[in-house]
Specification:
By secondary structure, the chain is α/β, with parallel strands linked by helices. The protein has nine helices and ten strands. Strand 1, helix 1 and strand 2 form a beta-alpha-beta unit. Helix 5 packs parallel to helix 7. 29% of the residues are buried.
C-alpha cells in the first residue's frame, strides 16, 4: 500500500465514506491533473476502501486503523478525523470529495491557508434552522461571546490545518457542539492576528440544478467548484466525464 513520506508538503487529507453519487474519482483525478504527485491521504473504514489498484495508481495513502469514540455524534466525528490526521502529519490540507480543483497552484499550502470567509460577522438569523446551521451559528456565537470576531468562515473549500495550532484549542471546549472548521479557523486567525477577507471569485458553489461547464468556471478564474446533494447528477457526471474518469476503473 502506498504511504506518504514527504515532510515538506502537507498532504491533501480526505475523509471518505461512499455515497450513492460518488465523485471521489473525479476529485482525485483533478488534483493529480493540476498538482501532479502532491501527497494524498484517504481516511476511511476498511470496508469502504476504493479498489487497491486505483489507490496505487493515484498514489494514495489509506488510513483505516482508527475508530470513532462510542456514541460520537456528527460534530465530534469531524474532530476525531482531524485527530487521526494529526497523529500522522504535522500539517495537512483538509479536502472533501465534493470539491473540484480547477487550476494549477504553485503552492497549495499557501493558497488554502488564506483567511477567506463567506460573510462578515452577523446576528443569528431569526428563522428555523436545520441541525448543521444550528451548530454553525452556535459556534459563531460562542466566539462572539468571548469577544472574538466571528465571521462565517465556512466556504466548503480545502483548508490547511496545522497540528501545533489545533493543539492550542482549549481542551474544555465542547467538541460535540462546536463545528471543527469554524472553530479551528476563527481560533487560529485570532491567535495569529490574521485579518479575514471576503472570498471573491474564489469558489463556485452549486447546490441545485445543473452545474456549469468546467471550461466556463475555469475561464472565469475560480479555484474550486463545489456542489450539493440536490444537483442534477446525471448531467454532472456527463460534464465531469469530459475531463476526468468518473469511476475507479
Amino acid at each position: 500500500m502506498f504511504s506518504i513520506s514527504s515532510k515538506v508538503r502537507p498532504p491533501i487529507a480526505i475523509s471518505y465514506r461512499p455515497k450513492d453519487q460518488d465523485y471521489l474519482p473525479v476529485v482525485v483525478a483533478a488534483i493529480r491533473h493540476h498538482l501532479g504527485d502532491w501527497p494524498i491521504a484517504l481516511l476511511t473504514e476498511e470496508q469502504h476502501l476504493p479498489p487497491a489498484s486505483w489507490l496505487d495508481r493515484m498514489e494514495i495513502q489509506a488510513l483505516t486503523h482508527w475508530c470513532h469514540s462510542p456514541r460520537a455524534n456528527k460534530v465530534l466525528r469531524m474532530w476525531e478525523h482531524q485527530q487521526v490526521f494529526a497523529e500522522q502529519f504535522e500539517s495537512w490540507i483538509w479536502w472533501h470529495d465534493d470539491m473540484l480543483l480547477l487550476k494549477d497552484l504553485p503552492d497549495p499550502a499557501q493558497v488554502f491557508s488564506a483567511p477567506l470567509i463567506a460573510h462578515k460577522q452577523r446576528k443569528r438569523p431569526n428563522e428555523q434552522l436545520n441541525n448543521w446551521q444550528n451548530w454553525l451559528w452556535e459556534t459563531l456565537g460562542f466566539f462572539r461571546c468571548q469577544g472574538i470576531y466571528a465571521p462565517n468562515p465556512v466556504l466548503h473549500v480545502p483548508r490547511l490545518v496545522r497540528r501545533d495550532l489545533m493543539d492550542t484549542i482549549p481542551e474544555n471546549w465542547n467538541r460535540k457542539r462546536l463545528l471543527f472548521e469554524p472553530t479551528y479557523l476563527l481560533w487560529t486567525w485570532h491567535q495569529t492576528a490574521q485579518q479575514p477577507e471576503l472570498a471573491k471569485g474564489y469558489r463556485k458553489s452549486v447546490f441545485t440544478g445543473t452545474i456549469p461547464s468546467i471550461d466556463s468556471v475555469q475561464s472565469d478564474g475560480f479555484t474550486i467548484l463545489n456542489w450539493g446533494r440536490n444537483i442534477d447528477h446525471d448531467a454532472t457526471r456527463v460534464e465531469f466525464s469530459k475531463h476526468y474518469p468518473v469511476t475507479f476503473d
